Amino acid sequence: MHWPSAWERVKLFVLAWAPNLEPLVLAVLAAGIASLWGFIEIAEEVFEGDTRAFDHWVLKVLRDPRDPADAIGPRWVEEMARDATALGGFAWISFTILVIGIYLWLVGKVRMMIFMLAAITSGALVSIGLKSFYSRPRPDLVPHLSHVMTSSFPSGHSMLSAVVYLTLGSLLAAIMPNLKLKIYVLSVAIILSVFVGASRIYLGVHYPTDVMAGWLAGLVWALVCWLIARWLQVHGQVEAGPPNTVETK
Asked: Do the domain assignments include residue 246?
C-alpha cells in the first residue's frame, strides 16, 4: 500500500481546501509552501556541498584581494553594515518589540499584542533549534568584521529579522485602515530584513546561503503567523482592524 509523502499530503490538503479559501489567504498559503520548499532545497544543497563554490566566491568578491580583512568600499560603508546588522540583534529587536507592544496596548489591541509576543518568541525558539540542528561552522575564508557566538546555518539575524519585522509588519497592516498604509508598513519590514541579511554577508560572518535560508525560514514563520492571526480575527479571538478605506480629496 502506497502512503503519500509529506509533499503529497500538503498538495492534497491545498486541493481540498483551495475552493473554500479567499484569494489572499490562498496566495499567502502558496507563498508559505514555496518558501518552505526553497528552504529545504537550500539546506540539502548546502550539506551536499553543492553551494561551496558560490558561497566562497561571494565572500571573496566582497573583500580586497590584497587584504582579506578589508571589506570593499569606503569605511563608512563598513560602519553602515554594522549599523544594519544591529537591527537584527537582540537589543534592537527587543526594543522594537517593546515599542510595538506598547503601541498595541495603548490602542486597545491587547489580544493582538499577546499574539505578537507569542509569535515572535516561538519564531526565535525555532531559529535557535534550526541552528542547533544543522550546526554549520561559520565561514573561515575571510576575517569576521562582527563578533559571533553561534553556528552559521541558517543565519539567526536574517531569520529573526524576517520573523520579527515581517510578523510585526503583517500584524500592523492587518489593523490599518487603508491599502497605502499597509503597503508602506510591509515595504519597510521587507527592506529592514533585506538590509540585516545583506550586512551579515558583507561582514563575513555568514555564507550567502545561510542568509537566504534565514530569510526563507523567517518568511515561512511570518506567513504562518499571519494565517493564524487571520483565522483568529475571523473568529473574533483577536482584534480586527477597520475595513479598507479609499482616500478622497
From this structure: no
Residue the block writes with cell 479567499: 22
Nearest to 165 by CA among 188, 181, 182: 188
Asked if residue 235 lies in contact with residue 175, where contact means CB atoms within 8 angstroms, the answer is no
pLDDT digits 0-9 by tens, 10-21: 555 555 544 555
Query: Domain range spanning residue 111?
Result: 6-234
Cell for 206?
555568514
- Assign 247 a pLDDT band (cuts: 50, 70, 90): very low
Query: What pLDDT sits at residue 128?
Result: 87
Q: pLDDT tens digit string along 1-48?
A: 555 555 555 555 555 544 555 677 778 888 888 989 999 999 999 888
Output DSSP code: residue 139: P
CA distances from 234 to 21, 113, 134, 198 (A): 13, 17, 37, 37
- Whether residue 160 is contained in a domain is answered as yes
The 10 Å CB-count burial string (b at 16+, else e) for 156-171 is bbbbbbbbbbbbbbbb
d(CA 196, CA 89): 9
Catalytic positions, written as ranges: 157, 206
Tens digit of pLDDT for each residue in 131-146? Answer: 888 888 888 888 887 8
Q: Is residue 242 part of a domain?
A: no
**Domain presence at residue 83:** yes
**Structurally, how many domains does the chain consist of?**
1
Pairing of strands 67-71, 63-64: antiparallel
74 prior amide bond cis, ω within 30? no
Residue type, 162: A
Provide the strand spans (E) within the chain.
63-64, 67-71
